[in-house]
Predict the structure.
Amino acid sequence: MAVISELIRIEEDGTLSFGDYTLPKKTKKGDFAYNGASYKIKTFKEITKLERDGMFVYESVPGTAVEHLQRSEDEVSFSVEGANDAEFTLELEPQTEYDLFIDGKKSGTYKTNLGGKLSVGVELDEGTPVKVDVKKV
């Protein structure tokens, strides 16, 4: 897996990929059309943030590259890569429990806060993507 040099793109399988953690300064791209919505990406070595129609979708500190982001009513899945361990936050349903799987192994069950945010730390080694699946309980 590599950084997304165009910052955000639609993959052949219809999923979304975004982020470039190698950039030294904040770079952004807006008005990216995908599945009837407008996406905006801000990314660089310190943070990667994705918004859909002005609403929060994903954020990581430090910055990451995300490939094959796929969302349904009950599940979010993607692969993530970064230069260092990172914490990512997803926007999900408020006060709902989700099982988290990292590379196919259950990492635990987590409950979102009142705003629907779920924050998780993940160990990353540059050049090695980690598969993340978040499934509604």
About this structure: The two ends are 30 Å apart (CA to CA). The chain has one domain: 8-136. The CA atoms of residues 76 and 94 lie 15 Å apart.
